[in-house]
Design brief:
By secondary structure, the chain is α/β, with parallel strands linked by helices. It contains 15 helices and 13 strands. The chain has two domains: 179 residues, 3-Layer(aba) Sandwich (Rossmann fold); 182 residues, Glycogen Phosphorylase B (Rossmann fold, 3-Layer(aba) Sandwich), CATH 3.40.50.
């Protein structure tokens, strides 16, 4: 039995695939199950997938950027080459099913699966599908969505299950978090800028850090490329006492993230679907800062959906002023009933069983 996973190549695509692969292995541990991932090159993702015994194949992908870039010219050539590459690779690999997480990186494999009549299944994380998902939805067998009112897709083949999350992130422990991060008894803010970090959020936090650390403790995931500079600048502006309440990390591994989610009182994050569902599954209130200019403006729509459901609040980038941000955080902690209500609504919204349901579906299809 063979299954091919594909996706855009970012952590938002890799982590859900990783989650489904792990659960699929648990459900069907047979040695005759061969799992592949085909998509654009992603060093960090390839390491994680290889640890799960997934064979990774790099596929050329062309990305359509909604702004001027010389890369648009080179990507015009990549797209047809990637499709040809995908057709030949899928033909000789002969998988039983292709499972796509969407994103531009999934398009060559998804199109090739349609041309070769290989069964194709799509999982869309965001409330607004990207262009690749819209096109490939026309020949998919099933579409699994994360939000109940995801736009565009035909209802007759759409099933809302929630976004698959890494089940290893469930069951964190506050006491374990205190040991890992050397935490005090102060209210704890967890700041996440996505797998690559966010320069906008990082710069904002540096500006408000001395003010926040007078009242709060902070765990800050900065992104691998930014951590040294952020920590160096923080060391300049913080007092010796404040430094003990600030914990910056380039990247939080699963054990760190699990326990940080368990211990924190508020999560400040981008609004990718992967982050939203992981935060909600930890039953935490969230303050979302959607990425301005994301494809189809999906992060803004994701964020406002969570606001409408009472799971969190939203500050858009154009309104992201230091004083406004600091005041919004303080106001939330001055209203503990609001934080409690957000946490309860996050619990209601979360669908941690999505991972198991999708893995069971694939197992039944394969067997």
């Amino acid at each position: 039995m063979k299954i091919v996973f594909t996706g855009g190549g970012t952590a938002g695509h890799i982590f859900p695939i990783l989650a489904v692969v792990r659960e699929l292995r648990n459900i069907y541990p047979g040695v005759n199950l061969k799992i592949y991932y085909a998509g654009p090159k992603n060093k960090h993702g390839e390491v994680l997938l290889a640890q799960e015994n997934v064979k990774v194949v790099n596929i050329l992908c062309g990305k359509i950027r909604r702004y001027f870039s010389f890369k648009n010219i080179t990507d015009i050539l990549k797209a047809p080459l990637g499709i040809i590459q995908s057709i030949f690779w899928l033909f000789f690999t002969a998988p039983d099913v292709v499972f796509s997480k969407g994103g531009y990186g999934s398009f060559p494999i998804a199109l090739a699966s349609g041309l070769l009549r290989i069964p194709f299944i799509l999982q869309e994380s965001d409330i607004v599908p990207g262009l690749a998902s819209k096109i490939t939805s026309k020949w998919t067998l099933e579409i699994f969505t994360s939000f109940p009112d995801t736009e565009y897709f035909p209802k007759y083949k759409t099933i809302c299950l929630g976004n698959p999350i890494r089940l290893s992130l469930l069951g964190g422990n506050k006491e374990e978090a205190k040991k890992i991060f050397n935490l005090s008894q102060r209210p704890l803010l967890l700041i996440l800028g996505g797998s690559q970090g966010s320069q906008t959020i990082n710069q904002l936090i540096l500006e408000v850090l001395p003010d926040l650390l007078d009242k709060f403790e902070i765990i800050h995931q900065t992104g691998i490329a930014n951590q040294k500079q952020i920590q160096a600048e923080a060391n300049v502006v913080l007092t010796k006492e404040q430094k003990s309440f600030y914990h910056s990390f380039a990247f939080l591994n699963e054990n760190q993230l699990k326990n940080a989610l368990a211990a924190c009182d508020l999560v400040i994050s981008r609004a990718g679907a992967g982050a939203i569902f992981e935060i909600a599954s930890a039953r935490k209130p969230m303050l979302l800062i959607p990425l301005m200019g994301s494809a189809q403006d999906h992060q803004t729509k994701n964020a406002y959906k969570m606001f409408d459901l009472g799971c969190g609040e939203v500050i858009e980038e154009q309104n992201l002023k230091p004083h406004l941000f600091t005041q919004r955080v303080k106001d939330l902690f001055d209203s503990p009933d609001v934080l409690a209500s957000m946490a309860e609504n996050s619990k209601i919204f979360s669908r941690p069983k999505a991972t198991t349901i999708i893995a069971n579906y694939l197992n039944e299809y394969l067997t």
